[in-house]
Automatic annotation (TrEMBL):
PANTHER family in the cross-refs: 1,4-ALPHA-GLUCAN-BRANCHING ENZYME
Limits of the Glycosyl hydrolase family 13 catalytic domain: 197-563
Enzyme's top EC category: transferase
Reactions catalysed: Transfers a segment of a (1->4)-alpha-D-glucan chain to a primary hydroxy group in a similar glucan chain
Protein known as: 1,4-alpha-glucan branching enzyme
Family: Belongs to the glycosyl hydrolase 13 family. GlgB subfamily.
Gene Ontology molecular-function annotations: 1,4-alpha-glucan branching enzyme activity; cation binding; hydrolase activity, hydrolyzing O-glycosyl compounds
This protein's encoding gene: gbe1b
Record bears the keyword Glycosyltransferase: yes
Pfam families listed in its UniProt record: Alpha-amylase, Alpha-amylase_C, CBM_48
Keyword annotations from UniProtKB, A to Z: Glycosyltransferase, Transferase
SUPFAM superfamilies tied to this protein: (Trans)glycosidases (SSF51445), E set domains (SSF81296), Glycosyl hydrolase domain (SSF51011)
Pathway: Glycan biosynthesis
InterPro entries according to UniProt: A-amylase/branching_C, Branching_enzy, GH, GH13_cat_dom, Glyco_hydro_13_N, Glyco_hydro_b, Ig-like_fold, Ig_E-set
Amino acid sequence: PAPSGNEGNVTIPEFSCLLQMDPQLKVYEKDFRRRYELLQKKLFQLEEAEGGFDQFTRSYKTFGVHRQPDNSLVFKEWAPAAEALFLTGDFNGWDKFSHRYTKKEFGKWELILPPKHDKSPAVDHNTKLKVVVHTKEGERLYRISPWAKYVTREEKSVIYDWVHWDPPHPYIQIHPRPKKPTSLRTYEAHVGIASPEAKVASYTNFKTNVLPRIKDLGYNCIQLMAIMEHAYYASFGYQITSFFAASSRYGTPDELKQLIDVAHSMGIVVLLDVVHSHASMNTEDGLNQFDGSDSCFFHSPPRGEHSLWGSRLFNYSSWEVMRFLLSNLRWWMEEYRLDGFRFDGVTSMLYHHHGIGSGFSGDYSEYFGLQVDEDSLVYLMLANHILHTLYPDCITVAEDVSGMPALCRGVEEGGLGFDYRLAMAIPDKWIQILKELKDEDWSIGDIVYTLTNRRYGEKCIAYAESHDQALVGDKTLAFWLMDKEMYTNMSTMTPMTAVVDRGMQLHKMIRLLTHSLGGEGYLNFIGNEFGHPEWLDFPREGNNQSYHYARRQFNLVDTDNLRYCQLYAFDRDMNRTEDKYGWLAAPPAFVSAKHEEDKVIVFDRAHVLFIFNFHPSKSFQDYRVAVEVPGKYKIKLDSDEALYGGHGRLDHNTEFFSEAQPFNGRSNSMQVNISTITLLVRFLCLTSRNISEN
């Protein structure tokens, strides 16, 4: 429907559902209506001007370079500030003036190259190209097409080259996309560091050596970082230079397609860490100043620059920027058959202040009003609307630290349309506890609050640590817990030291408590499942270009006489237990006990009873715990099992029978032993017979 132009008239079809969940949002109805109206207006304009969003988001089929049925090549660019455009490359002996683009309307440029005499295309597969931009000031600039599908860098060079990618026999993916998982267990991974060797690892290495591990561990989703091409490796993939190019440092586009295809054959979905929040400052091999102006894809400075990240910020209100970014999402879905995206830097997009120097208190006024950048907010609504309309099983995840209400509610309710948000407060809480508090000073109430403090009806992905926590200047949770003892005391041949004992047990408990209480999805960063030591640091000037910390030492987990395989086994069985009982897909847990003195947490979720004892020195006999479902209970997962580096003090044949004695807000209760421990902590996961015999 055409927008009315009158702000009060537009109705959000399911706004009442949102208000039912959170009546406090009623005050901001005008803001929700305005946002929704801006979205409808964009959809209407797309219909009028481009024949709808389906056509519009396939612009990667017309921009950049395309081979026609007769093998002629069509080149097309948007460079509004340019005076003239030329194409040069291996095909014309790098002649800078022989092939001139024709100027079209709206700042577009086009060039058609007829086929050679033998009817083959004028530009060969795997040869280099450049766009030559003549500016109004008389400068001549060398640029890579923003739509380039493949760029490479020669060993001695700093600058990336645009390489024409049109293989004679492209890889065809054969496996269908898996069904969207109800419980999302995500393995966050970086292809380049995914081997123990001191080098950049490949797509093929990941496919052959890492995918089987991920499958074995019970993860059903992979979140791939640093795939969109980035000239600076140490940017961890967050300073993008070529948005349509899969990074060539790990291999070819076809090898990435094969990796995704094999993941699909294992029933694993693959999400791309997509960076639409900002772009690299690079000009020669990036988007910056593509047409010689300081705007083009971006706002002019200062609005178009991020003061902390040293990068450029997109002008989301621009028609051609919208075409570029939405087509970029479509390209990754269509060309590589991905299953969705984790949107990076959403907080920076949502607010004019980019989240800089603003600690969000949770007061609703922070999420509405002039500080909100409605251009980018509406861009995100539009992206989610289009993705979920075209691909109903598509998964989108927002990296937002602000807690924007309705971020993960449907667009038809007035929300932004994401499926999940990352629960970013949880890892911060664990690091803070381990850095600042003695074991006996842990606040059980504070831990439970952090893990359960989330907006009802908006799904969260909980994690104890991600790539952020492992970066140089910080370290992995395992290293916070055990530090230098990881170098000397991880052998199973020698008795556990007190430090390693405490570290091993807490590593398991922190993960499981986060997994079971913290969200509707779970995330682990590659290697941390087995307690990867140290931290992450990419080769750069400051470390003499060393790869020592830019790798994952899978050799540690493959060595039987080291304790890493025990942590690995626990992570695997934790995921497999979730797969069986489905607590991530269940409503939030009912916490029946958070006992400060005993340091005990008890809750039930998905008919599974969880008991954690965080007391550094005390065990409990005949400890009464609350249960809702009456019946017989058995131990299903026990972090004290010897297999997981525990002490094996609980008898798994024991059966626990509930009594009709109400306790802590539950109808029934029973008595359990929380093992005899010295300087140890215990987690117990009990499941009810009424739900499952086995």
